[in-house]
Amino acid sequence: MTINNGSARPAIHVYYSPLLNDSSFRPLLYGMEEEGIPSVLKKKEGNNSMELGHQAATDSILGVGIGVGADNQIVLHYAKLPKDQPLFQIKQNEKNKQRILGSNAARLVKGIPFKTFQETGEDEANSTISAEEIARIVKKVLQRLEEIT
Asked: What is the structure's pLDDT at 3?
């Protein structure tokens, strides 16, 4: 697997199907922007969000990518995980979750806790996942890395 196909700019790559209009997932980009991590938006051939997300992650120098497919899904992927096992997956029509997914992509780069997608009475943008959930995610990523090496 080759990470970063020559792009020197550190950014989260967002690949989307040519069948889509990029305005349908603007909240996703706002989430990354709010966290201060740049993104690169590219229209790519393909309709499957997992394939687009995995390709975006492997092309990004940061190893983090997002795929927006014609399958009505958006996935957050990490380059060292198997193609069919993204970190997060949401439906495109979930605009409130798009912003959180974008934020979580940036937080993966920064190494800080993820925000939750659960609906609460509080402001969703300020909620984070528990330490136990973070430990579970980190354990899963480390297991995958051990399998690869």
From this structure: 46
What is the pairing mode between strands 64-68 and 73-78? antiparallel
**Phi then psi dihedrals of residue 67, to 5 deg:** -115, 130
Instruction: Check residue 24 and report its DSSP letter.
Output: G
As to burial, measured by CB atoms within 10 angstroms (0-12 exposed, 13-18 middle, 19+ buried), residue 68 is: buried
- Of 130, 109, 127, nearest to 117 by C-alpha is 127
How sure is the predictor about 64, in pLDDT bands with cuts at 50, 70 and 90? Answer: very high
81 pLDDT above the threshold of 90: yes
Owner of token pair 């229209």:
43
Nearest to 49 by CA among 3, 87, 6: 87
Query: C-alpha 103: how far from its chain's center?
Result: 9
Residue listed under structure tokens 């309709």: 47
User: What's the Cα-to-Cα distance from 4 to each of 7, 48, 127, 138, rounded to whole Å?
Assistant: 6, 21, 32, 23
How many residues are given for the chain?
149
DSSP H or E segment with residue 139: helix 131-148
